């Protein structure tokens, strides 16, 4: 829902809202990671600054993700985007000095036109969190502001498994207290310390309430809504579980197709395998794990460079064909990432699989990949970049999530059709350095 309003209007007085009983329930902070998602710098402070301060004081991890830099607030002002980032950093230092800040850098006022990119970037961010232990606060999807609505709706779609609450900003300005939104509403009572920290954070966003022309976006009547001793949110309801991968569909596909996806017949597939093999930084590996090995076309070539190789797939039919193709390999039927193979690996190959996982499963998979990778191990990830109708994620989301796992990237190959990257723990030398050429 978008609403026509003007920030220069006097708006609904705060006293009118104080007289309304929204039927709120207390917000219980029973999850140890708080993720606050804002459309623009200052949204997070206005709507959830007290929540951030409360969570930080309780020792919870706090991450703030900001979709745009708010540069459209005053288009004629040069350097506003940088200024607003600086204000955000200063404000968060007041409420949660150790908070993690993530800037997506999307166009202010253009989230609807960049919905797919927004979803991809947010998916990668949420892949780093355990959804069962995460509370997500995002600009409310019913707030009336287009960017707020699009961001709220996108987060509700992406953050499956996490609890999501929406914080209103402009609703307090244009809403009618005589017929308030039905919610359901939850509220967090602020301690004097949290309220004081929020007030100090608000003071850092000077570009929005102090202007040379006397026409600030946040005038005194608007700011009054955020000087309460409580913060009020709309509860999105029970977390939406991530849709599981339909393993039966893949099994049926392998049963009814001799060469699914043209592994054996298409030049695209043959060339891609050659690029992947050429990108490997070592001539030979001791233990190789191939995730989603399918019928073993790539496994056969990896086996020639591995002392031991294990291929994992959920399809019984695919594994039977793979075992016929590569008799010396070990093949295991497992549902990934829950059923993870034991052991440590110096090469793990993740090819054309990551986008079928939910954000939560991708996070679990990457945790287990990094946990089972040898100290000098190699992770190779390769994914189709075009749209896959039944995939939960896309290639960009998967590879951004990998980039956040604390690994160093040795190689990156990007084409219109696919992306291939090679990762290792930090400190592993490049190919030239390992051979004494540098």
Mean pLDDT: 91
User: Which second-level CATH architecture of the largest domain applies?
Assistant: 3-Layer(aba) Sandwich
The whole-angstrom Rg is: 25 Å
How large a portion of the residues is in β-strands, by DSSP E?
Answer: 15-25%
**What is the CATH topology assignment of the largest domain?**
Rossmann fold
CATH class of the largest domain: Alpha Beta
First-last Cα distance? 59 Å
Integer tally of domains: 2
SS summary, helix count? 16
Counting helices, strands and paired strands, the structural category is alpha/beta
Q: What best-fitting shape do the alpha-carbon axes yield?
A: elongated
Largest sheet: 8 strands, mixed
Give the total of beta strands.
15
Strand order of the largest sheet: 1-7-8-6-5-2-3-4
- Helix content bin: 25-40%
Low-confidence stretches: none
CATH superfamily of the largest domain: LmbE-like
Characterization of the model:
The protein is α/β, with parallel strands linked by helices and 438 residues long. It has two domains: 14-235, Rossmann fold (3-Layer(aba) Sandwich), CATH 3.40.50.10320; 247-434, 3-Layer(aba) Sandwich (Rossmann fold). It is built from 16 helices and 15 strands. The protein has helices at 14-18, 43-57, 80-95, 115-126, 146-158, 171-174, 192-202, 206-209, 220-223, 247-256, 267-279, 297-303, 316-325, 359-372, 395-403, 431-434; strands spanning 25-26, 33-38, 61-68, 100-106, 134-139, 163-167, 185-189, 230-235, 285-291, 306-313, 330-333, 345-351, 373-384, 408-414, 418-424. Helix 2 (43-57) runs antiparallel to helix 7, helix 4 (115-126) crosses helix 5 and helix 4 (115-126) runs parallel beside helix 15. The longest helix has 16 residues, at 80-95. The termini are far apart.
């Amino acid at each position: 829902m978008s609403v026509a309003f003007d920030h220069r209007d006097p708006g609904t007085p705060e006293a009118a809202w104080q007289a309304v009983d929204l039927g709120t329930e207390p917000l219980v902070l029973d999850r140890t990671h708080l993720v606050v998602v804002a459309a623009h710098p200052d949204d997070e402070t206005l709507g959830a600054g007290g929540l951030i301060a409360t969570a930080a004081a309780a020792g919870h991890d706090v991450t703030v993700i900001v979709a745009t830099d708010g540069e459209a607030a005053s288009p004629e002002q040069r350097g506003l985007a940088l200024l607003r980032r600086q204000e955000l950093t200063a404000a968060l230092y007041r409420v949660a000095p150790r908070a993690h800040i993530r800037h997506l850098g999307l166009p202010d006022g253009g989230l609807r036109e960049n919905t797919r990119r927004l979803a991809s970037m947010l998916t990668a961010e949420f892949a780093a969190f355990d959804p069962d232990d995460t509370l997500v606060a995002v600009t409310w999807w019913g707030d009336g502001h287009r960017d707020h609505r699009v961001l709220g709706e996108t987060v509700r779609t992406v953050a499956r498994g996490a609890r999501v609450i929406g914080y209103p900003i402009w609703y307090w300005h244009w809403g009618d207290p005589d017929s308030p939104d039905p919610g359901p509403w939850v509220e967090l009572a602020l301690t004097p310390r949290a309220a004081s920290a929020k007030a100090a954070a608000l003071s850092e966003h000077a570009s929005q309430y102090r202007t040379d022309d006397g026409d600030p976006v946040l005038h005194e009547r608007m700011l009054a809504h955020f000087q309460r001793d409580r913060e009020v949110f709309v509860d999105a309801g029970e977390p939406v579980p991530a849709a599981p991968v339909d393993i039966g569909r893949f099994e049926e596909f392998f049963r009814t197709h001799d060469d699914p996806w043209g592994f054996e017949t298409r030049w695209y597939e043959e060339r891609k395998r050659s690029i992947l093999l050429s990108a490997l930084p070592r001539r030979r590996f001791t233990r190789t794990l191939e995730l989603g090995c399918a019928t073993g076309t790539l496994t056969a070539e990896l086996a020639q460079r591995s002392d031991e190789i294990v291929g994992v797939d959920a399809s019984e039919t695919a594994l039977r064909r793979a075992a016929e193709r590569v008799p010396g390999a070990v093949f295991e039927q497992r549902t990934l990432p829950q059923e993870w193979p034991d052991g440590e690996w110096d090469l793990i190959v993740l090819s054309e699989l990551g986008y079928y996982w939910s954000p939560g499963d991708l996070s679990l998979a990457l945790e287990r990949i990094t946990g089972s990778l040898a100290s000098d191990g190699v992770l190779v990830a390769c994914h189709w970049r075009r749209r896959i109708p039944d995939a939960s994620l896309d290639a960009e989301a998967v590879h951004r999530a990998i980039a956040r796992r604390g690994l160093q990237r040795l190689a990156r190959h990007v084409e219109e059709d696919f992306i291939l990257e090679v990762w290792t723990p930090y400190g592993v030398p490049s190919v030239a350095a390992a051979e004494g050429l540098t």
